[in-house]
# Entry
Amino acid sequence: MPKKGTVINMKSASYNIKQQKKRQIKDRQRILRVVEYLEYNTVFEKCPVEINEGYIVSDVTDYSIFASFVFRNVSKKRIKSLDVRLLCYQKQNIPYLKLPFTYSFERYTLGTRRIGEERIRDKKQLNNPDISVGESFGETVYIPIPESYFSRLELEITGVRYTDGTYEELGIINGKPFTRFVELDDDKKFAYVTHNIFIAAEENYPSRFIPQKGEFVWLCCCAHKNLNEQNECERCHREQKWQFDNISINKLEEISEKIAADTSSIYHDKSKYSQTKYLETDEEIQRKTKAYELAMKRIAEEERRKERLKTWIIPKIILCLLAIYLIAFAMQLIYDAFISKAS
# Structure
């Protein structure tokens, strides 16, 4: 038989889950705007989830601040819940505020879920509440930040609970260091361009990073994260093997040395081969934030519509019962009149 304290804790936990769900439903009715786009292009070591995107958003009416993240399950197992913690900093290196948050179906904090670009509908989620391998989640879920004067924010992935009941403690904040294409010298950029067999992909999906690989995912040069089992990038379709064979600092140095040894290449102006015109610009970031704002607006309208329907349920039931009563009463009057005439 459980102790009294255990029962109280269970009731308290159940109450907290219900409160978080109510708050999330209410927050998803807000009209929000993106105030900052958080770029997550690093690959996490030995982490069952990856962060695809992050946003700081604000309510257009009361200016409440929230953080919103899009995750992807890159493990080999289905995930039941994900625990994270927001670390808010001012000028010190020690966070002055730590905000725990749990993503789970029962808390209504999985948000918009997708497999690839395809959205998983609500009815399908009821039959499959846990996060499948390769599934994205967290879109349009908002973590409230009570203090709005933080100067820096970090997300700590504290742990994950799998469908089989096992819990893995993580405590991961930073991922592997990465190298941007713009950080390469002109010789390496020239070496890359001369050996790039996917040059046609540059216009729509420019090379922005030196690709890197983790335990579960690999980062494409176009900045998209793919599962290690995927032989080509699901976004730009560049081959994984070709990238890791040809786009590394050592390989580019080797190619640039061969080019330098070729006297016919000495007089090339290597600086003109810069990929700068293809890199992520303010316009591209604005396009992403605009798309996210539209997604948030659609969710807000959908949640408000659901709330209106709930509000009308009781009046509709009362009206239906009243109508049934009036019809029954009228039929009784007609029946009584018919009986009186017959007699």
